[in-house]
Amino acid sequence: MRNEMMHRPVVKKELVDFMRNKQKMIQGELGVIEEEAHEAGIPIIPHETVVFLQFFLDQIKPKNILEIGTAIGFSSSLMAQYVGDDGHVTTIDRFDVMIRKAKATYERLGLTDKVTLLEGQAAEILPTLTGPYDFIFMDSAKSKYIEFLPECLRLLRVGGVLMVDDVFQAGTILDPIEDIPRSQRTIHRKLNQFLDTVMTHPDLTSTLLPLGDGVIMITKEKEITE
């Protein structure tokens, strides 16, 4: 089913096309998987976010990464390229169909020892993890971001980065809630709550990026006790 929110760019269409089609493509089998996903209409991170992740992870060189929202395993496979020989990616998903597809992706890419897929509800799994993680990528149910935030901050090391995808709600995040379709109002309200929380928190530093449907990068400056 077509997700209309994925097809409403938050910047000019010409710029989106430029970022998605003119930046260097992924080489090898992972690049084939990216192309196959786009052709099949499978929701994965857009190519401008791919390129940003490649650049950013190469700079910070994380050893331990946590992902919330595995989908077909594309982004976790991408991130696994940047954790070094002794690093690891842990990812969480609850959908059986996606879990099967992700496992097939890891097998295809030879990443079964590099990526651990935890199956189940993130709300139940996150409290069982100990971390710390250098980088956390959250790309799950948007209405759950505010719910998952405390556990993400607990698991993130001081100086680590939490990257959260799809925070602009197809560019409607600032619209009055009365103008939002009823089916999207819970997401709208909770995304606004999430953004307000992280952007005003005294122990966090954040920056917004117009990649895909909006990305926010959050750094934990010190241990958070509340």
From TrEMBL:
Q: Does the keyword tRNA processing apply?
A: yes
User: InterPro entries annotated for this entry?
Assistant: Cation-dep_OMT, SAM-dependent_MTases_sf, SAM_O-MeTrfase, TrmR_methyltr
Q: What is its EC number?
A: 2.1.1.-
Q: Name one GO molecular function term.
A: O-methyltransferase activity
Q: What is the lineage of its organism?
A: Bacteria, Bacillati, Bacillota, Bacilli, Lactobacillales
> What are the recorded Gene Ontology BP terms?
tRNA methylation
- What gene name is given for the protein in this entry? trmR
Q: Which family does it belong to?
A: Belongs to the class I-like SAM-binding methyltransferase superfamily. Cation-dependent O-methyltransferase family.
Q: Which residues bind S-adenosyl-L-methionine?
A: I45, S75, D93, D139
Q: What does this protein do?
A: Catalyzes the methylation of 5-hydroxyuridine (ho5U) to form 5-methoxyuridine (mo5U) at position 34 in tRNAs.
Complexes and interactors: Homodimer.
Protein known as: tRNA 5-hydroxyuridine methyltransferase
Q: Quickly give the catalysed reaction.
A: 5-hydroxyuridine(34) in tRNA + S-adenosyl-L-methionine = 5-methoxyuridine(34) in tRNA + S-adenosyl-L-homocysteine + H(+)
Q: Which Gene3D superfamilies match?
A: Vaccinia Virus protein VP39 (3.40.50.150)
- UniProt keyword list: Methyltransferase, S-adenosyl-L-methionine, Transferase, tRNA processing
